[in-house]
Amino acid sequence: MASLLSRFCRKLALPGSAHGSRMTSTTACGSETVKSLNLYSAINQALHIALETDPRSYVFGEDVGFGGVFRCTTGLAERFGKNRVFNTPLCEQGIVGFGIGLAAMGNRAVVEIQVADYIYPAFDQIVNEAAKFRYRSGNQFNCGGLTIRAPYGAVGHGGHYHSQSPEAFFCHVPGIKVVIPRSPREAKGLLLSSIRDPNPVVFFEPKWLYRQAVEEVPEHDYMIPLSQAEIIREGSDITLVGWGAQLTVMEQACLDAEKEGISCELIDLKTLLPWDKETVEASVKKTGRLLISHEAPITGGFGAEISATILERCFLKLEAPVSRVCGLDTPFPLVFEPFYMPTKNKASSSSSLSSPSKTHIF
Amino acid sequence: MAQHLKSSKSTFLNVLRHSLAFGSPSHASRHLRQKLPHGGPPSIKKVSPNPLTRLCNTMVDTLSSSHEDTNNESFTNIQVMDFPGGKVSFTPEIHFISESNEERVPCYRVLDDNGQQLPNSQFVPVSKEIAVKMYSDMVTLQMMDNIFYEAQRQGRLSFYATAYGEEAINIASAAALSPDDVIFPQYREPGVLLWRGFTLQEFANQCFGNKSDYGKGRQMPVHYGSNKLNYFTVSATIATQLPNAVGAAYSLKMDGKDACAVTFFGDGGSSEGDFHAAMNFAAVMEAPVLFICRNNGWAISTPTSDQFRSDGVVVKGRAYGIRSIRVDGNDALAMYSAVHEAREMAIREHRPILIEALTYRVGHHSTSDDSTRYRSADEIEWWNKARNPLSRFRTWVESNGWWSDEAESDLRSRIKKEMLEAIRVAEKTEKPNLNHMFSDVYDVPPLNLREQELLVRQAIKSHPQDYPSDVPL
Q1: What digits encode the pLDDT tens for the residues A202-227?
Q2: Where is the Transketolase-like pyrimidine-binding domain (chain A) (predicted)?
Q3: Other beta carbons less than 10 A from residue B38's beta carbon
Q4: Between chains, do A98 and B242 touch, taking CB under 8 Å as contact?
Q5: DSSP strand E in B296-378: where?
Q6: For residues B90 and B80, is the Cβ–Cβ distance under 8 A?
């Protein structure tokens, strides 16, 4: 990605290009207490707060009772009781269907799908029931209290069925929201917003970061707004858009590019549906270049939606084709994972400069 | 070692397991089984080449002859081991449970085919008021279906689905429930709404998709919903409502309500994955939910012989640990009683109940179907005449002196007038405003929808002739 960036921006390399500065992510109050937490602990904290603040909220899914296979639900059953935090039978369509019913009665149902690769049996319930519950009833009913959490993404050794990024399937469903946090601090605030949002939300957690990512997380109850993208690194030469664990990779690429004098503006989309077009549009109008990166396979990936939208809105301001650096169009491989992943050093197979209209496929 | 052996056979096996290093208790018992007990079936009494087996058998002999063991039963009755999930007893016989019982599960009914109360029939008594309302609503449902069906044939409605033959299931089940019980219908249960007070006008408004439709014109006809009557909006997807009902039932239990969730589905619906998911969840979560299956013999053109090979749907309850009953769905009193009892059990004991109501789908699947293409007109006619739920119940109601021909004709002419008026009004009521295409997708329309509405409105402005004129802008 860094060499791609440098080819993109070679002509624009100006001496003294500003290095991006990191903006602080949340609206933190001055005297908050923070604690160093990893991602699963931050998620756990959010769940504790959610259950504490609403007595009609529930957390359930496979193996949730003992703390969950990724430890996100540790301590909840002991604290809030087995009536509110419980194991379910091994049946995703049942888990989500049951959650919809609970939410339809005005409760908050925070359901866990053990790994996003297993969410598909619940797809019918999500698309045909949850997403349409309010609309088809003329707003007589809704299941806004439903939040579906699922670990997603590469983990280094997950293969076909422990590594998928299925967000694109869900971004095509009007009526639900899709949220993906990039870090522990973001995850806690976004999860609390998702749980409290009056619409059903699918919340994908980057499992790679469950232990790997550690950050200072405020201990109090805070929420990060949905459908608001964040510029996490300011720049002037190129806009990069991503979400979840991929932002860590993209940040490295930005650092490398800055060494070659390219100033990168990095945006965390956070909410993919409905997504914050305005922030991305304003950025691209400033920089004139856009690179989107995601782990999911490139064809039909959410990067295509962002690319098409930005082309429509910023065509005259673009100085180069929109680039997508993504996973390959294969099932997620095991031994070949390092080759599959959109790593920072990926280079295009054909030069973008000789044929500017060609999309870079990684 | 012998002196350490107590009379308990399980101790014996523990000894075997530990000191003879058997891998598992079932392994141990396999060796045991070669030694057959007193009075048991003749064995393969050969001397085993396996020294461990020989040792086991010797020890078994020793124990069996021990005076301490007063319980000289065969090894077949020993509960050998607690497996996860509980104790099971072993058997040396290889025996497969039959795929079906010799006799089918009997069907509960109160009235015979002619509407006479069967002797010794158990049923929950019904007051005159309730009985008359039940019968009147069955007639109303049938007439509503007639008139809407005709309206569709005349091109005034885009679509309709009747509940012919299933009026007793519709009305009697509703009558046995309380208004606080939440309903998750499939699509052939408008009678439940009717019982609860949904007016003919309200039905017509939804069918015509006008601005008074609570669904705001978004769905096809017969996709009713009413939050004030606790009837969740119909979705055409089959059986998806079943797990939802279980979640709702769990909520009622947790909130301590004197109410249950009730969900309806057909014989076809019982094949869907969501049926199995819901039944299993309901049992595990101990949810107060009634699963009412309208087994009407047909899933569009698919007869039940192509749908499942079990004895109908009722036997599936046991597979999930759910109490079940099979009921004559065309017998209003039997339906009423079954649902009444089921509801009490569900709420009092926090358990799901499965009710299989046997019936027949007299009408076509919908106005998009001509069922004479896959079944004989004679068959339809027979069910319509000989097993008609209305005539059976009417006989019983009249036998109590609660109904008459005069009451019948009064009712029918009143309903006909009301229906025609409801259609007339619904037809000329304007459609919902265009902005309702965009509202309620989310609680608040997001930016992309606000933009799309602007684009659509622009398109309408430039080409008004391309768009229907009855949708107000």
Answers
A1: 999 999 999 999 999 999 999 999 99
A2: 37-212
A3: 8
A4: no
A5: 298-299, 302-303, 323-328, 353-358
A6: yes
Q: Quick one: which of A198, A195, A167 has its CA closest to A180?
A: A167
What pTM, to 2 d.p., does this model score? 0.87
Please give the Cα distance from B325 to B435 (Å, whole number). Answer: 48
- B-contacting residues of A 1-60, CB under 8 Å? 56
Which residues, in sequence order, are CB contacts of B387 under 8 Å at separation 6+?
A: B113, B330, B360
Residue A353, chain B, CB below 8 Å: the answer is no
Q: Which residues of B touch A138 (CB under 8 A)?
A: 213-216, 218, 225, 233, 440
Query: Residue B167 and residue B389: Cα distance in Å, rounded?
Result: 7
* ipTM attached to this prediction: 0.90
Backbone φ and ψ for A231, nearest 5 degrees, come out as -85, 110
Query: Can you name the residues that pair with B358 across neighbouring β-strands?
Result: B295, B328
B361 is annotated as an active-site residue: yes
Interchain CB contact of B267 with A (< 8 Å):
no
Report the residue of chain B nearest A175, measured CA to CA: B441
**The dihedral formed by the CA atoms of B361, B191, B436 and A178, expressed in degrees to the nearest 10:** -70
Q: Which residue in the block uniquely carries the two structure tokens 């097993």? A: B387
Which residue of the set B326, B365, B387, B394 is catalytic?
B365
Domain ranges in chain A? 34-218, 230-353
B253 → chain A, closest CA residue: A83
For testing the chain A interface, which of B238, B250, B447 should be mutated: the one with the most A CBs within 10 Å?
B250
Selected catalytic residue, list A62, A92, A215, A265: A92
Pick among 2.40.110.20, 3.40.50.261, 3.40.50.970, 3.20.20.140: CATH of A34-218: 3.40.50.970
Query: What is the C-alpha to C-alpha distance for residues B336 and A279, in angstroms, rounded to an integer?
Result: 60
Same CATH topology for A34-218 and A230-353: the answer is yes
DSSP A259: H
Look at residue B226 and give its three-state secondary structure: strand
- Interface contact flag, A91 B281, Cβ < 8 Å: yes
Is A97's CB within 8 Å of B223's CB?
no
Angle (CA) B138-B346-B113 rounded to 5° is 35
Top CATH class of A230-353 equals: alpha beta
Q: Any catalytic annotation for residue A78?
A: no
Interchain CB contact of B260 with A (< 8 Å): no
Per run of 10 residues, the mean pLDDT along chain B (length 473 residues) is: 49 52 49 46 54 63 52 53 89 94 97 96 98 98 98 98 98 98 98 98 98 98 98 98 98 98 98 98 98 98 98 98 98 98 98 98 98 97 94 98 98 98 98 98 98 98 96 97
- CA distances from residue A4 to A12, A281, A323 in whole angstroms, order as listed: 14, 21, 9
Backbone angles phi, psi at B283, to 5 degrees: -70, -45
Could you give the count of Cα atoms lying within 13 Å of A334 in the half-sphere of its Cβ?
6
Contact B76/A at CB under 8 A: no
Name the residue with tokens 């993404």.
A153
